[in-house]
Design a protein that fits this description.
With 413 residues, the chain is an alpha/beta fold. It is built from 15 helices and 15 strands. The strands form three sheets. The protein has a seven-stranded parallel sheet, with helices on both faces. A six-stranded parallel sheet has the order 12-11-10-13-14-15, with helices on both faces. Strands 4-5 form a two-stranded antiparallel sheet. Helix 2 crosses helix 3 and helix 8 packs across helix 12.
Length: 413
């Protein structure tokens, strides 16, 4: 029996399985956080855990699932379907009624404060999962595409960083999906930061998902030659994904190359041989798309992990990513990473992804992806959470032993 399996505080821990509540406003039509939370909802029961999701709109298509709690919210313009939860107290009450043993907040906004309040009332651990780089997003929002190169962008980044540090210091643990983000959080002064990678379902995203006949039909539908080299991007159509850069890169590559963008969001990209398709909720069909294209491209430079990149790696599809951030970390030495800005640099990287060298890297990337298979990742995560609950229970037990009885305290006054 290892340290994670010991339960010396069995009187303070549940006896019928552990219960995790995930709270997030990141519940749009597409996006990595939703896919992560949905995968947990499906698979945690295999580990003896109960799982509850509290998110705006999460129960719309599955109203009969008692583990999905819709907390409402106002639509955020230009966000691709996200909603902002204004009624913080209502969300707190919903979490308390669900009575989880541990609460995880997947965003740093109003639901994070609700999670902290509910955790205090329930006397359970609260965990923050850093799925987004708020200072970078703030810099881009106020400073434009080049963000921190402008004074207003730098000011926004500093204010967001101070807010984030103040918020995250209140949690029992802060998880980052990449070493890159973990180091950044620690530099900012965030305590109790650990790395917790995300996962991919290797039984779905796999090389065998490639379908040559489907690919031929797609090329016919798009009016392309079957010999066209197809690049694919999956995810949100958001400004920080730098999708216009990919469109310009395709234009530079010239005829015989095309870009398929699968997802949704406020950014509409147009260009010769650039095709958009709505988000694909069925993971097997999504895997078929990714595995059947020649290379996967992701130009976002603010990614904390890069779930779409990992899914492509699991399909043995060559990947082209920015050299910075979580995607660069994932693809380091197993993909084509672009360190220079500009469409020509990306066009060169995309061309390199079609070479024999890139195919060899894709085989190495497949092995790395298999190390992130969801069963392995969830086993690691549940061990981490069980240890955190044990430590939290020990802290409460020690505090209760130190606290004087009410009668004794009253008599000494």
């Amino acid at each position: 029996m290892n340290a994670f399996d010991r339960r010396p505080f069995h009187d303070t821990l549940p006896t019928d399985g552990w219960h995790l509540l995930d709270a997030t406003m990141f519940w749009g039509a597409s996006g990595g956080v939703r896919r992560v939370v949905e995968t947990r909802h499906e698979q945690l029961r295999h580990f003896g855990w109960r799982h509850t999701v509290l998110a705006p709109g999460c129960a719309q298509n599955r109203p009969a699932d008692p583990g999905l709690l819709d907390c409402g919210g106002l639509p955020i313009p230009g966000s691709g379907g996200y909603r902002f939860v204004l009624h913080r107290a209502g969300a707190t009450r919903a979490m308390v009624r669900a009575a989880p043993d541990i609460i995880e907040s997947a965003d740093p906004y109003s639901l994070a404060w609700s999670a902290l309040a509910a955790a205090r009332e329930l006397q359970v651990p609260a965990v923050a999962f850093a799925h987004s780089n708020l200072p970078a997003l703030a810099a881009r929002l106020l400073g434009g595409v080049h963000g921190r190169e402008h004074a207003l962008g730098r000011w926004a980044s500093r204010r967001a960083r101070h807010y984030l540090v103040d918020l995250y210091r209140r949690f029992d643990a802060v998880l980052a999906p990449s070493q890159t983000l973990a180091r950044q959080l620690r530099r900012w002064g965030v305590p109790r930061v650990s790395v917790q990678p995300l996962g991919v379902d290797c039984s779905v995203f796999r090389p065998a998902a490639r379908d040559a006949a489907w690919r031929d039909d797609l090329c016919t539908e798009l009016g392309l030659s079957r010999r066209t080299r197809l690049f694919v991007y999956t995810g949100r159509f958001a400004p920080e994904k730098n999708l216009p850069l990919l469109a310009e890169s395709i234009a530079r590559l010239g005829p015989g190359h095309a870009l398929l963008m699968v997802g949704s969001g406020p950014v509409q990209v147009r260009g010769a041989r650039v095709f958009q398709r709505p988000c694909e909720p069925d993971r097997r069909r999504l895997a078929r798309i990714v595995a059947s294209c020649d290379a996967y491209v992701h130009a976002g430079d603010q990614e904390t992990f890069g779930l779409g990149v990992l899914e492509a790696m699991a399909c043995a599809t060559p990947v082209v990513t920015a050299a910075t951030g979580g995607t660069g970390e994932l693809a380091h030495r197993v993909g084509i990473t672009v360190s220079r800005s500009g469409a020509q640099a990306w066009a060169d990287g995309m061309q390199a992804a079609l070479s024999g060298v890139a195919q060899g890297l894709a085989e190495q990337a497949l092995e790395r992806a298999r190390e992130h298979d969801w069963p392995l990742v969830l086993a690691q995560m549940t061990r981490r959470y069980r240890l955190l609950m044990q430590r939290h229970a020990l802290g409460r037990h020690a505090t209760a032993e130190r606290a004087p009885a009410f009668g004794a305290a009253a008599g000494s006054v």
